[in-house]
């Protein structure tokens, strides 16, 4: 099983990611790209049809976690220690949201991760995230 | 003349339900709110579909963030609604989230979760809200969060 297949399997078995239809688009060393399809059930503001910030949080937390698991130092479980999300603008209704996450630094016990989310207009981010995640070493 | 308590309760519950009914995502998560006077406790009944770590099962970290954000938004809207509602006026629009920072203190167990949001600062334009979440024991938080919000015009 290659890395992309492993990541797809990992996300597919997470019940909440399955419920939202989150898919793994790409994965590499310490990085992951996940996508969330538009769904009227996830709307946070019916006046505009804009997706709730919470659904974007789920996507970003999942992408950051997947990036940590795709890092060679952390082949296994991880857990979020802390996650900050900045919401730059409302995502355009009807469009899917794509998140790129990457581990920019990994220490013995902690992975530092950044992520960016955008809709069809990739030049204008919908949200950014910065998080710290646990590194759980096998046999540690 | 003093209003009968049942009339007051009905009006307050109706206003709260009107706020909640606006937001499909509240229904999607299965969130409810317990109201005591103007105090709200957000409730997230456990469901299999909220799981983010299959073994041992734990609530998805993003779900916790989503639950807290919605608890904060509804608390803010409720705070700005309260006086208008008591006066029988229309409800304002929901605030918009600027950012949220969540501290994950321990795994979210496969149990119901509760959250209480406290408006730390309520300004004309910006609000700052702190949220505490717990499950079996109010003193043992499983996560906490701070968020900043943009208030709608005329809130």
Word description of this protein:
The complex is a heterodimer of chains A (140) and B (155). Chain A is α+β, with helices and mostly antiparallel strands and 140 residues long. Chain A has a single domain (3-137), classed as Thiol Ester Dehydrase, Chain A (Roll). Chain A contains three helices and eight strands; from the N terminus they run ααββββαββββ. In chain A, strand 3 (43-45) and strand 4 form a beta hairpin. The longest helix of chain A is centred in the middle third of the chain and has 17 residues, at 53-69. Chain A starts with a helix and ends in a 6-residue tail after the last strand. In chain B, a hairpin with a 6-residue loop joins strand 7 (126-134) and strand 8. The radius of gyration of chain B is 16 Å and the shape is globular. With 155 residues, chain B is α+β, with helices and mostly antiparallel strands. Chain B is built from three helices and eight strands; from the N terminus they run H-H-E-E-E-E-H-E-E-E-E. The longest helix of chain B is centred in the middle third of the chain and has 26 residues, at 61-86. In chain B, helix 1 (5-21) crosses helix 3. The two termini of chain B are 30 Å apart. The interface between A and B is large, with 38 and 36 residues. Strand 5 (80-87) of chain A pairs antiparallel with strand 5 of chain B. Chain B: This is PaaI family thioesterase. Chain B: InterPro entries: HotDog_dom_sf, Thioestr_dom. Chain B: It comes from Falsirhodobacter algicola. Chain B: Pfam families: 4HBT (PF03061).
């Amino acid at each position: 099983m290659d890395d992309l297949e492993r990541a797809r399997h990992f996300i597919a078995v997470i019940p909440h990611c399955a419920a939202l239809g989150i898919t793994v688009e790409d994965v590499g060393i310490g990085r992951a790209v996940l996508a969330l399809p538009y769904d009227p059930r996830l709307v946070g503001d019916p006046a505009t049809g804009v997706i709730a910030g919470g659904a974007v949080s789920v996507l970003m937390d999942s992408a950051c976690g997947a990036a940590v698991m795709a890092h060679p130092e952390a082949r296994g479980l991880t857990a979020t220690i802390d996650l900050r999300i900045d919401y730059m603008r409302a995502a355009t209704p009807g469009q899917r949201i794509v998140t790129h996450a990457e581990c920019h630094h990994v220490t013995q016990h902690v992975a530092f991760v950044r992520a960016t989310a955008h809709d069809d207009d990739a030049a204008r981010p919908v949200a950014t995230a910065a998080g710290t995640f646990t590194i759980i070493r096998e046999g540690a | 003349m003093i209003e009968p308590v049942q009339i007051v309760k009905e009006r307050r519950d109706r206003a709260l339900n009107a706020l909640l009914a606006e937001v499909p995502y509240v229904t999607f998560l299965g969130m409810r709110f317990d109201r005591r006077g103007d105090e709200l406790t957000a409730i997230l009944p456990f469901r299999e579909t909220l799981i983010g770590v299959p073994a041992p099962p734990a609530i998805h970290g993003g779900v916790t963030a989503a639950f807290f954000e919605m608890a904060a938004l509804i608390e803010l809207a409720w705070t700005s609604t309260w006086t208008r509602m008591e006066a029988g006026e229309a409800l304002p629009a929901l605030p918009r989230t600027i950012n949220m920072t969540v501290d994950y203190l321990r795994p979210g167990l496969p149990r119901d979760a509760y959250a209480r949001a406290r408006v730390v600062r309520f300004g004309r334009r910006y609000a700052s809200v702190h949220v505490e979440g717990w499950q079996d024991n109010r003193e043992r938080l499983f996560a906490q969060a701070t968020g900043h919000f943009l208030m709608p015009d005329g809130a």
